[in-house]
Amino acid sequence: MMVALRRERGMRREEIEHLFRHDGGRVLATLIRLVGDFEVAEEVLQEAFAAALEQWSAVPDNPRAWLVNVGRHKAIDRIRRQMRLRAKRPFLEAEAALAGDALPLEPDDDSLSDDMLRLIFICCHPALNMETRVALTLRAVCGLTTEAVARAFLVSEDAMAQRLVRAKAKIRGARIPYETPDPDRLDERLEGVLAVIYLVFSEGYAGTSGESLTRENLSREAIRLARLLDELLPGRAEIAGLLALMLLHDARRSARASAEGDIILLEDQDRSLWDEVQIGEGLQLIERALRAPGRPSSYTVQAAIAALHARARRHEDTDWPQIVGLYEVLMRLSPSPVVELNHAAAVAMVDGPARALDLIDALIGRGELEAYHLLPAVRGNLLSRLGRREEAKSAYTQALALAKLEPERRLMARRLAELD
Amino acid sequence: MQYLLLIYANEAEAAKMGDAGRKEMMSEYQTFTQSIIKSGNFKGGDALQATANATTVRVRNGKAMTTDGPFAETREQLGGYYLIEAKDLDEATAIAARVPSAKFGSIEVRPVMVYS
User: Fold this and answer.
1) Whose C-alpha in A42, A120, A336, B100 is 20 to 30 A from the C-alpha of A267?
2) What is the residue-level pLDDT of chain A in tens, covering all 420 positions?
């Protein structure tokens, strides 16, 4: 915040900053529509919060509407200043549009929600590259500071600021519309938004490198985004599916690593540490997603797999035949070598390691996943179960060489040591 | 707002297209062009001769140098363009997706610079 002064009886700065984090996105969303420019809207939003910091002794009844109105007036002031400087006619029009009484003085929640949806879709527009979509979404929709976004993606604050400036320049220059997509493009565009959210989640969930705290926050932001989207576009099965998938994975967070930061595999996890509330919510969402007509999204199928793991009280209670079946569905819906690898690992639990090994060797034969350490890791596990110790050791050695993150390397080294 | 749709495709592949294929392509282009004239989006457009007939000129140290061919070797070559009027990028990309060559080549959508 730019204003350092704080009134003695004024609200605490933290309260307003909390409001900024929580409602900043929605206020920004409406200001972009009113002002017609992303960058100017961000600036007047900052000014509106500075004004709040100075003037509020308590939160007004409708803080969002207060902030929108103040931001709007700040924008009108700017236009008047520019008019005086340049004496150009076109600004009159812009001013009239901003000050016009067609605008509700107390924006109702519906119009704020529509604006929020517009903001999400513009931040995730396919004309921007993936990294930029993720950064812009975290900055504008989630209200993270540029510094926090930079830290989460391990780039300098300057580089991140530059990336955001270029994105806004493209939005303005190429005239990327501030609209929710037409119905005939909505499915495709929504898929793009979900991909951004899942990427944010995965960055946070990989959580084994960098500052663990920051990364954990990313997963939480992704869940928050999916909840918001589910609220704004109610009844969409693919949103429920993604939200379920993230909740179910995230529910295992505290069981996934030891106090020393070592990876604990699913079969060895202390299931009493799993977050029951989150699992319950995830299971309900899957029910909803599966009841929807049409074929399920790949997120829903992945969530259904996660749900079968979540439902098993003990590892040996896991319903592997059904998991194999779901992986087969997934291979048809969105084929990828990683899905095939997971399918093979599940097959090992039903038909035994020999059959799974055939599937994996077929993958290797096609030259897939050559740099992916989990391929030799799964292979090593199967070989050791078949009693082929030397071959298992060489597979784990290969996995160790390919693993990049420290906890993964330690796990591979442990497996190797167990074979000695 | 005006956008230039730059139509890129592989010339070698296009050369392999038979007479029937070429005729069908021409008729698809005619239909498309008529439709954007009718909708008011069309501002101009042309097909270009092959890069074999292209010449590149550059001036270095005050001296003009003329060379054969396009500036860079690429997999796809510029084969034509449309200049269109569209309300925003989404309308422009929707029109670009209807350019017949988009099915095998690619259409680069470039906003035209506005000086104010």
Assistant:
1) A336
2) 344 444 444 567 788 888 888 888 999 999 999 998 899 999 999 999 999 988 888 888 888 889 999 999 999 888 888 777 766 555 556 666 666 544 554 556 677 788 999 999 999 999 999 999 999 999 999 988 899 888 888 889 999 999 999 999 999 999 999 999 989 899 999 999 999 999 999 888 765 444 454 566 889 999 999 999 999 999 999 999 999 999 999 999 889 888 888 889 999 999 999 999 999 999 999 999 999 998 899 999 999 999 999 999 999 999 999 999 999 999 999 999 999 999 999 999 999 999 999 999 999 999 999 889 999 999 999 999 999 999 999 999 999 999 888 888 999 999 999 998
Find where tokens 């949806």 sit. A117
Domain ranges of chain A: 13-107, 109-176+185-234, 317-420
CB A322 within 8 A of CB A260: no
Question: How many helices and strands (H and E) does chain B possess?
Answer: 3, 6
What residues 108-127 of chain A have any CB closer than 8 A to a CB of chain B?
127
| Cα separation, A150 vs A155, whole angstroms | 5
CB contact under 8 A, A173 and B90: no
Mutation target among A82, A170, A175 for the B interface, most CBs of B within 10 A: A175
- Please report where in the chains the tokens 């109610």 appear, as a residue: A234
Under 8 Å between Cβ of A148 and A210: no
- Can you count the helices (H) and strands (E) in chain A? 19, 0
Size of interface A-B (CB pairs under 8 A): 24
Q: Which fold has domain A13-107?
A: Rna Polymerase Sigma Factor; Chain: A (1.10.1740)
- Is the pTM higher than 0.90? The answer reads no
Closest CA relative to residue B74, chosen from B2, B6, B4 = B6
Q: How far apart are CA A132 and CA A67, in angstroms?
A: 27
Domain regions of chain B by residue span: 2-111
Q: Does domain A317-420 have CATH number 1.20.120.340?
A: no
With beta carbons less than 8 A apart as the criterion, state whether A378 and A392 touch.
Answer: no
Of the partner residues B87, B89, B94, the one whose CB lies closest to the CB of residue A174: B89
CATH 3.40.50.1240 fits B2-111, yes or no: no
ipTM of the complex: 0.87
| For B1, nearest residue in chain A (alpha carbons) | A175
B107: chain A residues, CB-CB within 8 Å: none
For A37, A69, A86, A165, A413, the CA distances from A82, given in Å and listed in that order, are 15, 20, 6, 22, 65
